[in-house]
Amino acid sequence: MKELEERIRKEGTVKPGNVLKVDAFLNHQCDVTLFDHMGAAWAEHFAGRTITKILTIEASGIGIACIAARHFDGVPVVFAKKAQSINLDGEQYTTTVYSFTKQKEFPVIVAKKYLSAGDHVLLIDDFLANGKALHGLIDLCKEAGAVVEGIGIAVEKGFQGGGDTLRAEGYDVDSLAIVESMDAETGEITFRD
């Protein structure tokens, strides 16, 4: 998606440790118009698939998933929580994932009443690096008996291999911008064609 690539080039900042900051428009301050265009792109890519739920992970995926859901005719958005709380009641699906940006493991939890056998799920997230978070969401779907119909990603770091692994496993991953390389010293970012 050229629009997203241009925003990354213009406003993204490359930090040491393979960190790409896009908080000016994607995951701190949110450009809702851009999110809407992203949702339209995913709706076009996944047209013809049965989607009954959109599943994301807190926190950065929530806004993107909610705006994208407008293009999927009333499909609800469910987000996996990263911590147990008194608000989580009843039976739950849980797994543990490693966060590249936070450099630690955390629990991922979805109440069983919001994810069930027979659901056809579109996973949406802001970033895909090594794929650990997405594999966690896939594990939750498998545990629930839900079918993963596809994965929509805003920014994939292609050089970290997570997207390639998911595609090799048979998942339809639609990443709107795939970063091929980035340099913290020069700030240069290149994209996969």
List the helices and strands and how they pair.
Elements: H1 2-11, E1 13-15, E2 19-21, H2 32-45, E3 53-57, H3 60-69, E4 77-80, E5 92-99, E6 104-111, E7 120-128, H4 132-144, E8 147-157, H5 162-168, E9 173-182, E10 189-191
Parallel strand pairs: 3-4, 3-7, 7-8, 8-9
Antiparallel strand pairs: 1-2, 5-6, 9-10
Question: What's this entry about, in short?
Answer:
This protein has helices at residues 2-11, 32-45, 60-69, 132-144, 162-168, and strands spanning 13-15, 19-21, 53-57, 77-80, 92-99, 104-111, 120-128, 147-157, 173-182, 189-191.
Structure description:
Keywords: Cytoplasm, Glycosyltransferase, Purine salvage, Transferase. This is Xanthine phosphoribosyltransferase. The structure is a single chain. The chain is an alpha/beta fold and 193 residues long. Helix content is 28%, strand content 33%. The chain has five helices and ten strands; from the N terminus they run αββαβαββββαβαββ. The chain has a six-stranded mixed beta sheet with strand order 4-3-7-8-9-10, with helices on both faces. The protein has a two-stranded antiparallel ribbon with strand order 1-2. Strands 5-6 form a two-stranded antiparallel sheet. β7 (120-128), α4 (132-144) and β8 form a beta-alpha-beta unit. The radius of gyration is 16 Å and the shape is globular. The N and C termini lie close together (10 Å).
The stretches of 5 or more residues where confidence is low (pLDDT under 50) are none
Helix content: 25-40%
Q: Going across the biggest sheet, name each strand in turn.
A: 4-3-7-8-9-10
Assigned CATH architecture: 3-Layer(aba) Sandwich
CATH topology: Rossmann fold
Query: Termini separation (Å)?
Result: 10 Å
